[in-house]
Write a structure and sequence with these properties.
heterodimer, A: alpha+beta, Alpha-Beta Plaits, 2 domains, five-stranded antiparallel beta sheet, three-stranded antiparallel beta sheet, 6 helices, 51% helix, B: alpha+beta, elongated
């Protein structure tokens, strides 16, 4: 027969157990998503990314202020030229991957087993590093592009099969793109550990020519 | 199979109590085996001891786990964390202001051009081409029917780090969902009000996610505007988002796709960042 003292002890232990279990779950939930609890290394990386994005925004604001002033002046004098409209059209055509483009950047050559998820991750990483235009095996990646497994083990981009080896070209600041992709612990380093039999070669390119979206 | 395997173990525990009852039943005036009595008392002590031991062990484990978590936190709360966190928040706040300024300047330029486009047929045609291209590039707001995808961390997380990883949202989950939406013919996609365009990226640092350079945390609401049947077909395809669906079933990751009408996807508010790429 269990004594009342023993029963109370068990109940107390069970109660504390429950309280601790709940607080442990809650603390992990908070830990996983709180900016305050990121490591200093993560915060530093986060700050660098935010600073880069803000810098790009400031550059564009500066540029746009000049264009607004010039366009306003030309309209008020009744001499509105097509220049501003044409300039805007050209910029959006590049942004929407409608035009063939040229510029500096990097090439990522992949030879060996690879898959569509990894290719999507590589494109995401290049965009995050500031790539302005991307093409894979001379097929342009567009704003609504999607990846899928291709027939016979290849990769499909927008439903079109791309057979390996793959040449991924990205236009942008070649230094920034190169460092972002090849840094220690970066995406190429991770790929090299996962796709051990695949060869990865990243190089800076002074000039790349990319086709328009088809 | 599992239940069949459990039965013998259950059977093995029961005999610990069964001999007791048998010995009580068997004890009579003719039973001179007084040796049974000390054994029964010892077993009773052992049972109550075990009843306390198991919760006590668990209690100890949880105390240790709790203490470990707090230890990690105190280590993180080093002198640099507070200013770094403040700097990140300040930059995010600055970004919001810059995006608002950019949106205002774009509106001003649109107004000037709209006024100018009434001047000649050439400017009108040019303006029409710009408007069409802007819509295709995600530079204008879009409204319409489509699907909404809800993605959230599991409400209850496991104590295991391995399971914790499977029960929370990752940047790759968002890129996979966006990929499935484009594959399903979406005309516009937005994650927590950030429009996805040709230069958009989903970036993960530590456990923080950024979309278009904006800091975000779960829950995520992904709006995909387009033909509902086609979009639902893409998300319901068993070959699509297999990992997310499995983690939803096994680890409680929140993932739900539903039809919705009158959805809104805002225009892209970030920089166009067209500098190095020149039209050929």
């Amino acid at each position: 027969m269990r004594t009342p003292a023993g029963g109370i002890a068990v109940a107390l232990v069970a109660l504390l157990l429950g309280v601790l279990a709940v607080s442990q779950f809650r603390s992990q939930d908070v830990y996983s998503r709180s900016l305050q609890l990121e490591t200093p290394a993560s915060l530093t990386s986060l700050i660098a990314t935010l600073a880069d994005k803000n810098s790009a925004l400031r550059d564009e604001i500066f540029d746009l202020r000049l264009r607004v002033a010039a366009a306003g002046a030309s309209v008020s004098t009744g001499l509105f030229s097509l220049t501003e409209g044409e300039r805007q059209l050209a910029q959006i055509r590049v942004f929407a991957a409608q035009d063939a483009v040229a510029g500096p950047g990097i090439s990522v050559m992949l030879d060996g087993p690879f898959d569509e998820k990894a290719m999507s991750d590589l494109v995401n990483e290049l965009r995050n590093a500031g790539a302005e235009a991307i093409a894979i095996n001379d097929r342009r990646v567009g704003p609504r592009s999607w990846f899928a497994p291709g027939p016979a083990g290849g990769i499909a981009l927008d439903g079109n099969r791309l057979g390996g080896p793959w040449a991924v070209h990205a236009i942008g600041s070649s230094d920034v793109l190169y460092v972002a992709i090849t840094r220690t612990g970066g995406i190429v380093g991770q790929f090299e550990l996962i796709y051990r039999s695949t060869r990865f070669k990243v190089s800076k390119e002074p000039s790349l020519d990319l086709p328009p979206l088809r | 199979m599992e239940q069949a395997g459990r039965a013998p173990r259950g059977g093995a525990t029961r005999p610990a109590s069964s001999p007791d009852s048998q010995s009580v039943k068997g004890r009579g005036p003719w039973d001179t085996s007084g040796l049974d009595r000390p054994n029964t008392t010892q077993q009773a002590h052992l049972r109550s001891g075990l009843a306390l031991l198991v919760p006590a062990l668990l209690f100890g484990f949880l105390v240790a786990a709790q203490w470990q978590t707090q230890l990690e936190r105190s280590e993180l709360a080093v002198r640099y964390n507070a200013p770094l966190t403040e700097a990140a928040r300040s930059l995010q706040s600055e970004q919001n202001t810059l995006k608002a300024q950019l949106a205002d300047l774009r509106r001003q330029l649109d107004t000037i051009q709209a006024n100018a486009s009434t001047q000649t047929g050439v400017t009108r045609e040019l303006q029409a081409r710009i408007d069409d291209l802007k819509a295709r590039a995600g530079l204008t707001p879009v409204s319409g029917d489509g699907v909404v995808i809800q993605l959230d961390d599991a409400k209850q997380t496991s104590a295991s780090v391995k399971d914790l990883d499977k029960s929370i949202c990752h940047a790759t989950d968002l890129t996979d969902i966006v990929n499935a939406a484009w594959r399903g013919g979406a005309q516009a996609v937005a994650i927590n009000e950030e429009r996805i365009v040709g230069t958009s990226s989903v970036y993960c640092v530590g456990s923080t996610i950024m979309v278009n350079g904006t800091l975000m945390s779960p829950p995520f609401r992904i709006v995909a505007i387009g033909r509902q049947d086609q979009l639902l077909g893409a998300f319901q395809d068993p070959a699509q988002l297999r990992d997310i669906k499995q983690r939803g079933e096994v680890h409680g990751l929140g993932f739900r796709v539903s039809r919705a009408t009158g959805l809104q996807a805002p225009e892209y508010s970030g920089a166009l960042n067209v500098r190095a790429a020149q039209p050929r």
